[in-house]
């Protein structure tokens, strides 16, 4: 029997309309418009996929999942941000999170391909790397880290994540280095006077109206600010398109990365122990999460 080929795939889906990061006001408006379109990925999305190590999960073939916020309507989101007077503190708000199921992932990937909004990064991985990914996901589930969806959290110690940070952490495991290309990162200087909700040390109450009236620019020069930095699905998608391997379908964008061959990494990847005090998940919940994220081996019926 041929040895099973192990691989990691990062699936990248950009938003339907490019987000306008030129100012807080323009970002809020473009984000809202994308949500109002009823799109499956209004701000973009990343999925991780990797082959399971040999005999690790009976009947399992691979993991396919991603980090998402629990479903909220645009109106519910506005009510939350306005009700808590978060302002741009919404970048740091701990939303209720979830792990995407394999069914959700496959459905959205097919949908994105049809929209020509799907790109992939492929990495060949070893059995040890697959075991590392599986061990991390095990902690992520058991410690309840998947319930915390937000920016500015440390994925490596289990605090939680947005979809992009979650995807980048798995890519780092696959490559064995801290694998966030600077070309993939969106970085802005958030004015202190627009951060509310108790985040980044700010207790002010900032309304959505404040974002419109005072959010014409990001902080400049010596203006009091907080740097917000995040991997951006749009920028990752653009990069993959520019580095895409030629294939039969010109609307499908894919590239491969190799361990040790990337000059933009920032050092060796070193696994960290989880350092969170979230309530440990119950046995039924843990079982449910694994059933969601593991794709089963397809058994061909006898002819």
Broad shape: globular
Q: What about the largest sheet?
A: 6 strands, mixed
Oligomeric state, counting identical vs distinct chains: single chain
Q: What average pLDDT do the residues reach?
A: 91
By DSSP, the count of extended strands is 11
SS element count, helices: 8
N-to-C terminal Cα separation, in Å?
Answer: 21 Å
Roughly how much helix do the residues carry, as a percent range? Answer: 25-40%
Secondary-structure element series: EHEEEHEHEHEHEHEHEHE
What does the model show?
- With 303 residues, this protein is α+β, with helices and mostly antiparallel strands.
- Helix content is 31%, strand content 19%.
- It is globular, with a radius of gyration of 20 Å.
Task: State the gist of this model.
Helices cover 31% and strands 19% of the residues.
Keywords:
globular; three-stranded antiparallel sheet; 31% helix; alpha+beta
How does the SSE layout of this entry go?
Blueprint: E1 7-13, H1 24-36, E2 45-51, E3 60-65, E4 67-69, H2 74-83, E5 95-99, H3 102-114, E6 119-124, H4 127-142, E7 148-149, H5 163-175, E8 185-191, H6 208-214, E9 225-231, H7 233-242, E10 253-256, H8 283-293, E11 294-296
Parallel strand pairs: 6-10
Antiparallel strand pairs: 1-2, 1-6, 2-3, 3-11, 4-5, 5-7, 8-9
